[in-house]
Design goal:
Strand order of the largest sheet: 2-3-5-4
CATH class of the domain at 13-42 and 348-390 and 466-649: Alpha Beta
Strand content: 5-15%
Shape: globular
Structural class: alpha/beta
Length: 654
């Protein structure tokens, strides 16, 4: 059947005839775009997500500009005043390092480890980088309540591997020089000696960090302890000084989840009187590093030279207005988001998404019901979890209240600290109160989506519901291949190697039979091995970490497979139309590839391979389809084609 009733949703004039989809689906769809596209000079990568992000950024800028003229005292004026304070370069330049002088002086006054810990604790509310990180979430063992989490911290490089892996030797050298440069700008003497001590201490801290594969383990990182037992992990050090200085409401520290217990023990061994001068220099560095983006241009440029140019290969700092937009979104994101939704999110998009989500859930239900490797006992629990999924689409029903935040248009760093304090108090204030299941952890203008295992919810902000991911006015195949696969991906996180440890109520519990868990892990180990063998063509000496990316890879595989089944459900037995000479299944896979359009700098590719739980986009596209039989049928893939994978090596999990 042929019809042109709806557009295909595929930019067919972009397809590269020199690259066959059977050999490289990613470059068949995106190769022409990659060949002609220059990554913007202020970006480390550029593609479908970032194109939409730029559009959202421009839309938010317009909202912010209007807010600068809003009535004083209103939420809108807070948005405008915060932006104004960031754009007041003349004042920021004149102040230089003055805004952090008192903080640096307080570090110099420290005379003992207890005083150091108390100062670190008092800095928590100001948003300064700390030796541990605090956050609040619902309790995995009792998801009907909030609890405080304590997580390893203290590093200025992306993760612990940067301090030990030979491939990062040049980055470490550059980091020492960067720390020296920043401390010198802050007016500290012997900046070279201080930088050497800071990086030496961070290197010691890094030896006690869990690696990024270990920190994914939901069981190993769930250690709910009364404060006395948590503090005892740091034998020989009084963590009470730090806790008291945090200034938390009563009861917040009664029980805490210590994600990496051995880190606290190792950290205690470093918190000695002999090392106190090193710790003081380290804390000075935290003050400077956490404040650099809001100080004079010398700090801003030095900060970008390392974190931008060195780590990601980005040649040019983003325009100041763009950085100002980011600040506003971080501090007052839903205040802006409410207006963004009114202007840029059509109600019919939400209605269409409701149908897509319903079909994806039904497709998962049918798939789970028919799984050959799963027993009836575990199947019943999996279906129960599926039935309890909560979808959130577009924007929150209740918007966040920012009345506690005071903004001064003449005090940039003061505003940054105030926003951090309000957010900190808001988070700690959750403990002891009811769970807010209406809360969103992304703004509506964010180009992304997420699954929250503790809430068993899938969330799709308004801004991602655009081409190439979604268009209610195009043929269904393209929508199911793009946003449908994203929906399937997020549902799939509920059944990936870690999400599958949580039940339908968000409780961390083993709801699997031993035989089913063993069968599941056999399948996931095969997928890990597939990805371990992959290395991007542009950085062939750097491989994908299959264990780090397994959760996202399971999400991709299940998401795309189930999205295709949902597409068939949407057809309700009708024959898929042929549009632009393409069958429905071909459009489905081409849309999948279209969504992963990306060009990336070499430095950024290396950085992400080391720390990102997502595989490179080319493999998210190509390696997944190698495991899906319908792809072979859609493009008549044979053994002589590059994307061929023998049938007995293809992995199907959900």
């Amino acid at each position: 059947m042929t019809t042109d009733a709806l557009p295909s949703g595929i930019t067919t004039d972009e397809l590269d005839p020199a690259v066959r989809p059977q050999d490289d689906l990613f470059r068949h769809v995106n190769g022409s775009w990659i060949a002609r596209t220059e990554i913007p000079e202020d970006k480390a990568r550029y593609g479908s997500f970032l194109v939409l992000a730029e559009e959202a950024e421009a839309a938010v800028r317009d909202i912010i500009h209007e807010s600068q003229d809003a009535d004083p005292g209103t939420e809108a004026r807070k948005v405008g005043d915060l932006f104004t304070s960031f754009l007041d370069e003349e004042r920021v330049e004149a102040l230089g390092a003055t805004p952090i002088r008192s903080l640096l002086d307080s570090v110099g006054a420290v005379s003992s480890v207890d005083e150091l810990l108390a100062l670190v604790g008092s800095f928590e509310k100001q948003g300064l980088a700390s030796v541990v990180q605090l956050f609040v979430d619902n309790d995995p063992g009792d998801p009907g309540r909030y609890v405080l989490f304590v997580e390893q911290g203290g590093l200025g490089l992306p993760d612990e591997s940067y301090y030990r892996d030979e491939k990062f030797a040049s980055v470490r050298t550059a980091y020492v020089a960067f720390v020296e440069r920043m401390l010198s700008l802050a007016g500290l003497d012997d900046a070279a000696g201080r930088a050497s001590r800071v990086v030496g201490l961070e290197t010691a801290i890094a030896t006690h960090h869990w690696d990024n594969v270990a920190t994914r383990d939901s069981d190993a990182t769930y250690n709910l302890l009364p404060w006395s037992e948590a503090a005892a992990l740091a034998e020989g050090v009084d963590l009470g000084a730090w806790r008291d200085a945090v200034g938390a409401p009563a009861g917040v520290f009664d029980e805490v989840v210590v994600r990496e217990p051995s880190f606290l023990t190792g950290l205690a061994g470093l918190l000695t009187d002999e090392r106190l001068p090193e710790w003081q220099d380290w804390l000075r560095w935290q003050v400077v590093r956490s404040s650099a983006a809001y100080l004079s241009s010398a700090f801003v440029q030095a900060n970008f030279d390392f974190y931008g140019r060195t780590l990601t290969g980005t040649p040019v700092q983003r325009a100041r207005w763009k950085r100002g937009v980011s600040l506003v979104e971080g501090a007052l994101g839903e205040a802006v988001g409410r207006i963004y939704v009114e202007r840029h999110f059509a109600p019919e998009a939400k209605t269409a998404m409701d149908v897509l989500v319903a079909n994806l859930v039904e497709a998962y239900r049918q798939s789970i019901t028919g799984l050959e490797w799963m027993t009836d006992e575990t199947r019943a629990r999996a279906l129960d979890k599926l039935d309890k999924f909560t979808p959130k689409i577009g924007y929150p029903e209740t918007w966040r209240d920012y009345s506690a935040l005071e903004v001064d248009p003449t005090d940039l760093l003061g505003n940054v600290r105030a926003a951090a304090a309000v957010g900190f108090d808001r988070e700690l204030g959750k403990i002891g109160g009811p769970i807010d299941r209406g809360e969103w952890f992304m703004t509506p203008q964010t180009i992304n989506a997420y699954y929250n295992p503790g809430f068993n919810e899938i969330v799709f902000p308004a801004a991602i519901l655009q081409f190439p991911f979604f268009d209610e006015k195009r043929d269904a195949a393209a929508n199911y291949g793009a946003i449908g696969a994203v929906i399937g991906h997020e549902i799939g996180h509920g059944f990936d190697d870690q999400g599958s440890k949580y039940d339908g109520d968000g409780r961390l519990t083993d709801w699997w039979t031993p035989a089913d868990r063993e069968a599941f892990e056999k399948l996931t180990s095969s997928l890990i091995a597939q990805y371990d063998a992959l290395a991007p063509a542009q950085v062939p000496d750097h491989h994908v970490n299959g264990a780090l990316t397994i959760g996202e890879n399971i999400g991709d595989l299940g998401g795309l497979s189930i999205a295709y089944e949902a597409y068939l459900i949407s057809l309700d037995g009708a024959e898929a139309p042929v549009i632009d000479g393409l069958t429905g299944v071909q459009r489905f896979f081409l849309s999948w590839a279209q969504a992963w359009q990306l060009k990336i700098r070499d430095e950024e590719a290396v950085r992400l391979l080391s720390i990102d739980p997502h595989s490179p986009n080319e493999f998210r596209c190509n390696q997944i389809v190698r495991n899906i039989d319908e792809f072979y049928e859609a493009f008549d893939v044979s053994e002589s084609d590059a994307l061929w994978l023998p049938a007995d090596q293809r992995v199907t999990i959900w």
